[in-house]
C-alpha cells in the first residue's frame, strides 16, 4: 500500500490513518514540524513493511530528525528510501543521520538537498557512508552549502562504497580544482556510478578533461548533468572525447546554459547521429542559432540516432530553422519529446513543424511551443495535428497571443474523439469568458484532459 499526502496539514484523525501497513509514505509539503516526528518514529518502529518515506518541504528541523532517527535505528526498521529535502536541517542533524547510515544496511537512498548541512556536516555523513554496514546507492546533496573542502571526504567515501550508483552535488560552490579532484577519485573508485549531477558548481572548461576521463572509464555512467556551468565550446570539445569513447554508454546528457554556440553543434551532431545509447539531451539556453539547429536536425535524420528527447528552449532559433526541424520530425521515428519554446518560430515556422508532425514516421508525444511568437494564424494547423496525431498527448502553447480566435480552434480540436491530448498548458493567454466556459465544459466532457492555465 502507498499513502501519498501532499500540501495538507495533519489532524489527529488523519494521523491515525497512517498507522497501517503501508509500504510507501509520502508527506511532502504537509506543514509538519518536529512534534510530528515522534508519531512518525512510532510508525517506522511498528511497521516493518515501510520502505519509502518522503518528508520534503516540512519544518522538521534538527530536533525532528533526532526523533525520526530513533525509529530508523530500531531493529524492525526496513526503510530503503529517505527524503528530507528542504526540512530546515543543519550540520547538527548529520551526526544522527551518520548513526543511521552506519547501523541500517537496508537504507539505499538518502536525499538531503536544500538543507544547510555545510561541509562540516557532510563530512560527518561521509563517515557513516564509509561504515561497512552502509549499503547506500543514491546520495543527493544539492544546495547543501558545500565548498571545495568536501571533496577529500567524498572521495574517501567513494573509495569505500562500491554500491554507490548516484551522486548529485548540484548547486554547491565546488569550483574547478575540487571537481577535478572528485573526478580523479571517481575514476579510481570501484563504484559503478550511473548518475553524476554537477549543475551550477562553478565549473569551466578547465574541469572538462577530468569529467571526460570519468566518461571514458565508467561505462556504467548513463546520466551526466553539467548544466549552468560556463564550460563553453572548448569545454564541450573536451567532453566530446569522453562521450564518443566506445566504452561510454551515456543515455541522458544535460548541457543547459553552458555558453555553447553553433560551433559546438558539429560535435553534438556527431554524438546524436552515432551514439546509439543517447536518448535525451538538454541544450536549453545556449546560443545555438538556426545554423546550429540545422546541424542537429541533420543528425536526427541519421538512422543510427536513437534520441527520444531534445530540449532546445531559448536557443536563438527562428522560422529559418523550422523546415529542417520539420524534415527531422518526418524522418526520425524515435523522437518523442521536443521542447522548442522561447524561440521566435512564428506562425510560419509552426505551420512547417506541423507538416513534419503529420508525417506517419513522426511519433512525438510532448511538444512545447511556449513563447514562440504564435498567433491565431497557426492554430488551424495545430488543431489539425491535435485531432489526427494520436501519439500527441502533451502540448504547451503558453505565453502566445492566441486570443479567442485561436483558442476556439484549439477547443474544436480537443472536442474531437480522435484527439488524444491529455495535458494542454496555456499559461498567460488572454481569452474571453465565453472561451473560458468552453474550456471548462471540455474538462467536464473529457475528464482525461487536464488544462493548465
From TrEMBL:
Gene Ontology annotations for the cellular component aspect, listed alphabetically: cytoplasm; nucleus
Record organism: Drymodes brunneopygia
Major location category of this protein: cytoplasm
InterPro entries reported for this sequence: Leu-rich_rpt, LRR_dom_sf, LRR_RI_cap, NLRP_innate_immun_reg
Record function comment: Ribonuclease inhibitor which inhibits RNASE1, RNASE2 and angiogenin (ANG). May play a role in redox homeostasis. Required to inhibit the cytotoxic tRNA ribonuclease activity of ANG in the cytoplasm in absence of stress. Relocates to the nucleus in response to stress, relieving inhibition of ANG in the cytoplasm, and inhibiting the angiogenic activity of ANG in the nucleus.
Subcellular location: Cytoplasm; Nucleus
Any Pfam family matching the protein: LRR_6
PANTHER family: NACHT, LRR AND PYD DOMAINS-CONTAINING PROTEIN 12, NACHT, LRR AND PYD DOMAINS-CONTAINING PROTEIN 3
Key words of the record: Acetylation, Cytoplasm, Leucine-rich repeat, Nucleus, Phosphoprotein, Repeat
Keyword Oxidoreductase tagged: no
Gene3D superfamilies linked: Ribonuclease Inhibitor
Subunit: Forms high-affinity heterodimers with RNASE1, ANG and RNASE2.
UniProt name for this protein: Ribonuclease inhibitor
Amino acid at each position: 500500500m502507498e499513502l501519498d499526502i501532499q500540501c495538507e496539514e495533519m489532524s489527529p484523525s488523519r494521523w491515525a490513518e497512517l498507522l497501517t501497513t503501508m509500504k510507501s509514505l509520502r508527506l511532502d509539503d504537509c506543514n509538519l514540524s518536529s512534534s510530528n516526528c515522534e508519531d512518525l518514529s512510532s510508525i517506522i518502529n511498528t511497521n516493518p513493511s515501510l520502505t519509502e518515506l518522503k518528508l520534503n518541504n516540512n519544518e522538521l528541523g534538527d530536533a525532528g530528525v533526532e526523533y525520526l532517527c530513533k525509529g530508523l535505528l530500531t531493529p524492525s526498521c526496513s526503510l530503503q528510501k529517505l527524503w528530507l529535502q528542504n526540512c530546515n536541517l543543519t550540520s547538527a542533524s548529520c551526526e544522527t543521520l551518520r548513526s543511521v547510515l552506519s547501523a541500517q544496511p537496508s537504507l539505499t537512498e538518502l536525499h538531503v538537498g536544500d538543507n544547510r548541512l555545510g561541509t562540516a556536516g557532510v563530512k560527518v555523513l561521509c563517515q557513516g557512508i564509509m561504515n561497512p554496514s552502509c549499503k547506500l546507492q543514491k546520495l543527493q546533496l544539492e544546495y547543501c552549502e558545500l565548498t571545495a573542502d568536501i571533496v577529500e571526504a567524498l572521495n574517501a567515501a567513494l573509495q569505500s562504497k562500491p554500491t554507490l550508483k548516484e551522486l548529485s552535488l548540484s548547486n554547491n560552490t565546488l569550483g574547478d580544482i575540487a571537481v577535478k579532484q572528485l573526478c580523479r577519485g571517481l575514476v579510481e573508485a570501484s563504484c559503478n556510478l550511473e548518475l553524476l549531477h554537477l549543475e551550477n558548481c562553478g565549473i569551466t572548461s578547465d574541469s572538462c578533461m577530468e569529467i571526460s576521463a570519468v566518461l571514458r572509464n565508467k561505462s556504467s555512467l548513463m546520466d551526466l548533468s553539467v548544466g549552468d556551468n560556463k564550460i563553453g565550446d572548448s569545454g564541450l570539445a573536451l567532453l566530446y572525447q569522453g562521450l564518443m569513447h566506445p566504452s561510454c554508454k551515456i543515455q541522458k546528457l544535460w548541457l543547459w546554459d553552458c555558453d555553447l554556440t553553433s560551433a559546438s553543434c558539429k560535435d553534438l551532431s556527431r554524438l546524436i547521429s552515432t551514439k546509439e545509447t543517447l536518448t535525451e539531451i538538454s541544450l536549453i539556453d545556449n546560443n545555438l542559432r538556426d545554423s546550429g539547429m540545422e546541424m542537429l536536425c541533420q543528425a536526427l535524420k541519421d538512422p543510427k540516432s536513437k534520441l527520444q528527447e531534445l530540449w532546445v528552449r531559448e536557443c536563438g532559433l527562428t522560422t529559418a530553422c523550422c523546415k529542417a526541424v520539420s524534415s527531422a520530425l518526418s524522418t526520425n521515428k524515435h523522437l518523442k519529446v521536443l521542447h522548442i519554446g522561447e524561440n521566435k518560430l512564428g506562425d510560419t515556422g509552426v505551420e512547417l513543424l506541423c507538416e513534419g508532425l503529420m508525417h506517419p514516421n513522426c511519433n512525438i508525444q510532448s511538444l512545447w511551443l511556449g513563447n514562440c511568437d504564435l498567433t491565431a494564424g497557426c492554430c488551424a494547423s495545430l488543431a489539425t495535428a491535435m485531432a489526427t496525431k494520436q501519439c500527441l498527448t502533451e502540448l504547451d502553447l503558453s505565453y502566445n497571443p492566441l486570443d479567442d480566435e485561436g483558442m476556439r480552434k484549439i477547443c474544436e480540436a480537443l472536442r474531437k474523439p480522435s484527439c488524444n491530448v491529455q495535458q494542454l498548458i496555456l499559461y498567460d493567454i488572454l481569452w474571453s469568458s465565453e472561451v473560458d466556459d468552453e474550456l471548462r465544459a471540455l474538462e467536464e466532457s473529457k475528464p482525461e484532459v487536464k488544462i493548465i492555465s
